[in-house]
Structures are given as C-alpha cells and as structure tokens.
C-alpha cells in the first residue's frame, strides 16, 4: 500500500521540465506555412519541421499570444506549418504529461480509498510492517540512482554556463577592440577628407578606409548579435540548472520522508497516524503534479509562439 503511495509521489515530482528557446532570426519560424509534411529546414541552430498543426490563442504573462501546436489524428481544421523541433518535442511531452496526470489523479483517489479501508482495519488490529519497510527501502535505492543521474546533468550544465560566460567575455572584448579601431579609422578618414589639397593623392586611402570602416561596423554588429544569442543560451542553461537543483531536492526530500516512515514503522508498526500522513502526502504530490503540468504547458506555449 505505502509503496504505491510513495510511487505516486515520485510520479508527481517527475511531471515537469522547462526549456527556453532562442529566437530564430529568419523568414521561417513557428507558424510559417509549408507544403511537404516532415520536411525540415534549419535557421541558425534551430531546426524547423513541417507538420500538421493548429493555431491557438493562450495567455502568456497576462497577454494574449498566438501559438501553433502539432495536431493529433482527431484534430479538425489542421493545416501545415513549420514548427521548431523543441516546440514539437515539448508538445508531445505535454500530451503525455496530461495523460500521466489523469492516471495519477485516478490512482491517488484509489490509493486514498485503500488507505481509508486500511485505517478501518487497523482500528481492529495492527498490520505487519516488514513489507512496507522493504518497499520503501527499495524505493529509496531507486531514487538514489535518479539523484546521481540528475547530479551528473547538473554538473554538465553548470560547466556549460561557465564556458558561455567566458565566451561572452571574449566577444565583449572583441567588440571593444574593434570599436577602438573603428573610431581611429573614422578619425583618419576625416583627416584625409579634410586635406582637400591632396584629394587626388588621398583618394585611394580614403576608399580603403571607408571599406575598412564598413567592414568593422558589420563585424561589430555581428559580434553584438552573437553575444545576444549566447546570453539567451546561457539563460536557458541557467534555468535548466535551477530545474535540476529542484528535482534533486525533491528526490532527497522523498528519501528523507521514506527513512522517517521506515524508522517509525520499525519502532511502532503501521499506525492510523502514519496512514493519514501518507494520504496527505499523496494528495499534496497530486497538487504538485498539477502545478508542474501548468509549468510544462507554459514552457510549451513559449516554445510554440508565433514567430519564434
């Protein structure tokens, strides 16, 4: 019984995952029409795929926003649009999460009914605790493996954030150096143009400096765009770091609760109080799962916004 309750707790904690996409600066974006299903096109580092999808209006940060989400077999009035792979992936994850939540709600209701039945039985006699202890011990072992996996991902993402921070600093230094050179070139060009007495002699140098200034200006603009893109990447990774930290904390919290239940069971055996606490826990995890699903939906909507 309590093993099932704890498993539901894990299911509630796992229904989450947010990603922040980076904007595609090109003609093709979410909502662009297409003609050949499954055809892909790449814009920068973002891959778009032609799929059947539907247009929808949602609330993002309190404002109406247009999104495009992949259609299902039963969807009516679907049309062909380009959608970013992240949008497609997150939409599929959200659809699965909706089904998982429905299952979790059903299972939680069933578990709570079972707990009530056990409470009635325990008012007559105290049940054996060994099965519960073994189940919670195995569950903690499984959670410990998941913690290791998430800690590895957390470490990798932290390193990526460090690397991107260094990259941003390097690009910023390049922009500063190019700006100094650009300003110096502009000063020299102004001086040559002002020397009207040697206009013919200076013509070639004026042309070279003008070309160099144009190239430097383009390079600076390109570096600035690169810096913006890199900062968005770093923000996305920073969000992932926060998510992994939260998940690890939730797992450790579950282990702590399980250990407490095991110790209580060893000392006192299963009691009405313990069952009531587990009933509250399963209900609490269901609420957390609903909140997590809302976050997943918001993440999907962000990734599937028109023009992203």
Protein described:
- This protein is α+β, with helices and mostly antiparallel strands.
- The protein has a single domain (2-27, 90-302), classed as Orthogonal Bundle (Helix Hairpins), CATH 1.10.287.
- 71% of the residues lie in helices and 11% in strands.
- The protein is built from five helices and four strands.
- α2 packs antiparallel against α5.
- The chain is elongated and about 115 Å long.
- Residues 5-26 have low confidence and may be disordered.
Encode the helix/strand succession as letters.
HEEEEHHHH
Biggest pleated sheet? 4 strands, antiparallel
Overall tally of structural domains:
1
Please name the CATH topology: Helix Hairpins
Provide the CATH architecture: Orthogonal Bundle
Coarse structural class: alpha+beta
Overall 3D form: elongated
Number of DSSP strands? Answer: 4
- Mean pLDDT over the full residue set: 84
- Helix share bin: over 70%
Rg over alpha carbons: 29 Å
- Give the distance, in angstroms, between the N- and C-terminal Cα atoms: 47 Å
Report the total helices: 5
Q: So what's the CATH class?
A: Mainly Alpha
- Which segments are poorly predicted (pLDDT under 50) over 5 or more consecutive residues? 5-26
> How much strand content do the residues show?
5-15%
């Amino acid at each position: 019984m309590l093993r099932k309750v704890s498993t539901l707790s894990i299911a509630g904690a796992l229904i989450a995952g947010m990603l922040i996409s980076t904007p595609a600066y090109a003609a093709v974006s979410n909502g662009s029409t297409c003609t050949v299903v499954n055809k892909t096109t790449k814009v920068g580092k973002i891959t778009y795929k032609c799929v059947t999808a539907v247009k929808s209006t949602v609330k993002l940060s309190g404002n109406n926003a247009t999104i495009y989400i992949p259609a299902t077999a039963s969807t009516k009035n679907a049309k062909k649009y380009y959608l970013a792979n992240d949008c497609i992936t997150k939409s599929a994850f959200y659809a699965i999460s909706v089904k998982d939540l429905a299952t979790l709600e059903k299972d939680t209701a069933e578990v709570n009914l079972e707990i009530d039945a056990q409470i009635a039985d325990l008012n007559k006699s105290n049940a054996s605790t060994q099965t519960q202890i073994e189940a919670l011990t195995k569950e903690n072992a499984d959670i410990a493996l998941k913690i290791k996996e998430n800690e590895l991902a957390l470490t990798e993402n932290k390193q990526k954030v460090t690397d991107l921070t260094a990259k941003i600093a390097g690009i910023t230094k390049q922009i500063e150096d190019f700006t100094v050179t650009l300003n110096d070139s502009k000063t020299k060009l102004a001086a040559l143009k002002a020397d009207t007495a040697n206009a013919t002699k200076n013509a070639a140098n004026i042309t070279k400096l003008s070309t160099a200034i144009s190239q430097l200006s383009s390079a600076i603009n390109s570096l600035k765009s690169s810096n913006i893109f890199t900062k968005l990447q770093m923000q996305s990774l920073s969000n992932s770091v926060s998510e992994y930290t939260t998940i690890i904390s939730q797992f450790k919290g579950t282990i702590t609760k399980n250990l407490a239940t095991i110790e209580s069971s060893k000392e006192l055996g299963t009691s009405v109080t313990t069952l009531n606490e587990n009933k509250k826990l399963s209900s609490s995890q269901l609420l957390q799962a609903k909140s997590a699903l809302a976050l997943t939906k918001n993440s999907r909507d962000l990734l599937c916004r028109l023009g992203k």
